């Protein structure tokens, strides 16, 4: 294990400031950050993956 913090969906939503429906639409369209689905059905996102995904969204001039 890498020690990478696992974020919950509510943590990601709070950071992004987007509605849950928007986040799940992004996931459905494969435009959201890669996630881990746990055996109990919960979804987690590695902090490193979240930061990589955010970085890839940066606009260039």
Question: How would you describe what is shown here?
Answer:
This is Helix-turn-helix domain-containing protein. It holds the Pfam family HTH_17. It comes from Streptomyces chisholmiae. The protein is α+β, with helices and mostly antiparallel strands and 61 residues long. The chain has one domain. It has helices at residues 9-16, 20-28, 47-56, and strands at residues 6-8, 36-37, 43-46. It has a three-stranded antiparallel sheet with strand order 1-3-2. The termini are far apart.
Structural features:
alpha+beta, 3-stranded antiparallel sheet, DNA-bd_dom_put_sf, HTH_17, Helix-turn-helix domain-containing protein
Set out the fold topology.
Blueprint: E1 6-8, H1 9-16, H2 20-28, E2 36-37, E3 43-46, H3 47-56
Antiparallel strand pairs: 1-3, 2-3
Describe the structure concisely for a colleague.
It comes from Streptomyces chisholmiae. This is Helix-turn-helix domain-containing protein. With 61 residues, the chain is α+β, with helices and mostly antiparallel strands.
How does the overall form come out from the CA principal axes?
globular
| Strand ordering within the main sheet | 1-3-2
Q: Which percent bin holds the helix content?
A: 40-55%
Q: Number of helix segments?
A: 3
Number of domains: 1
What proportion strand?
Answer: 5-15%
Uncertain stretches: none
Overall mean pLDDT = 92
Estimated structural class = alpha+beta
Q: How many strands, what sense, and barrel or not for the largest sheet?
A: 3 strands, antiparallel
Number of strands: 3
Elements, N to C (H/E): EHHEEH
Distance between the termini: 38 Å
What Rg is obtained from the alpha carbons, in whole angstroms? 12 Å
């Amino acid at each position: 294990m890498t020690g990478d913090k696992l974020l919950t969906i509510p943590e990601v939503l709070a950071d992004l400031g987007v509605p849950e429906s928007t986040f799940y639409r992004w996931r459905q369209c494969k435009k959201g950050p890669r996630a881990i689905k746990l055996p109990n059905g919960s979804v987690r996102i590695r902090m490193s993956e979240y930061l990589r995904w955010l970085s890839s969204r940066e606009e260039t001039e």
